Amino acid sequence: MGSEQQFKQIESTESARCNQCALHALCLPGIVGCFNSALGPIVADDVTVAKGQALYNHGERADNLYVVKSGAFKIMTPLCGHDSHVSGFRMPGDLVGACGLTCGQYAFTAQALDRATVCRLPLDRLREAQLRQPMLTQGLLQALSNQAAQAQRQVTRTNLPALARFALFIKDISSHHQKRHLSATEFDLPMPRTDIADFLALAPETISRLIASLTKQEVLVFEGKTVRVLNSEALENACEALN
To answer: What is the pTM of this model?
Structure first.
């Protein structure tokens, strides 16, 4: 009984925070319809991570899931005898830490690319809330499924030519912004080119060459971290490059 009362108190005091968030309707797709009653009570607090610092490290006990509110993270996979490999990026609205759901430990390291803020979702609260709100489980499974599909697509793309890999990467970032009602033709790339190269299994020099080529062809413009898509049709064609 005390547990039920405590849950209701948490719900009433914390759902407002989610309701006011700019990512309200985009966080954990699939549970928007019951957002206030499902996700609000789970959020414990916001966590701010400085640039270059880890939100969590490989092998640490997994007690929380996180949702990125601002900034971005790179996901690093440990490789035997080598430095960690950049296996993905997480931006606002993305779920972080799902790798810890299966074995109780984080399988990867999440490092902030710049100053970042995340919502912390304690797993004990999440498990309790799932009993009351089945839609929460559905939304969580959808988010996990989306990440698994992205990872599988990335594995498949390693067989594509360098131009297609890079163009698809830019298109994915563009689509991410579009889904969040932001500009799909002008956005920032928070990750350095060395991380992009690692993620795409290309040399940094290749990334520089591709940027120079697409700039010369007036497909894209790079100004510092900002990218502008000048020719969406040409970018689409580059995604289908065969050589």
So the answer is: 0.80
